[in-house]
């Protein structure tokens, strides 16, 4: 992997510490490199946007599931809401024609969690706020012996995951 330089590296310095720590761990896990550090890691996306039918329903759901993960609603308008920690990374907009849910597509969004209890709380909040179970919280040895995750489907059919890398 080539080192990240210039503006991408500068943006990396602004990422929350928990995101950097998890990203380093994922790079080490995927690449089998113990020397992965901030010079090699950078978030690929500035933000992701999804369309929903009912913004009020989505606000209730996402407020509940993202709070345990340390994310908050940073903006709300009549047609959109934005979530993140220090900047908006997830936009949710009320649209006329949201992408139809397709569970076989492989599309899902994975949120980093600060600990396993946050993954559990994410899943419980999803179930309590109109979500559907797509995998109870627990260790996922098929991914890694340290991969702890829970999965829900939001009210519009988007597949969501919360992930925490257990200590080695």
From TrEMBL:
InterPro entries in alphabetical order: Glyas_Bleomycin-R_OHBP_Dase, Glyas_Fos-R_dOase_dom, VOC_core
Signal peptide as annotated in the record: none
Pfam families found in the cross-reference section: Glyoxalase
PROSITE patterns from the UniProt entry: VOC
Residue ranges annotated for the VOC domain, each copy included: 44-165
Superkingdom, taxonomy of origin: Bacteria
Family annotation (CDD domains): VOC_like
Protein name as annotated: Catechol 2,3-dioxygenase-like lactoylglutathione lyase family enzyme
Organism, as annotated: Rhizobium herbae
């Amino acid at each position: 992997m080539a080192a990240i330089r210039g503006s991408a590296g500068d943006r990396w310095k602004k990422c929350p510490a928990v995101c950097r720590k998890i990203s380093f761990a994922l790079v080490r896990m995927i690449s089998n490199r113990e020397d992965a550090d901030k010079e090699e890691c950078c978030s690929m996306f500035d933000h992701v946007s999804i369309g929903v039918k009912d913004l009020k329903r989505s606000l209730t759901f996402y407020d509940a599931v993202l709070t345990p993960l340390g994310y908050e609603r940073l903006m709300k308008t009549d047609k959109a809401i934005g979530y993140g920690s220090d900047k908006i990374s997830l936009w949710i907009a009320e649209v006329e024609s949201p992408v139809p849910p397709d569970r076989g597509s492989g599309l899902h969004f994975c949120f980093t969690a600060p600990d396993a209890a946050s993954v559990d709380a994410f899943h419980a909040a999803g179930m309590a706020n109109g979500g559907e179970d797509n995998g109870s919280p627990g260790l996922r040895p098929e991914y890694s012996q340290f991969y702890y995750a829970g999965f829900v489907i939001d009210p519009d059919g988007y597949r969501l995951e919360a992930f925490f890398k257990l200590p080695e």
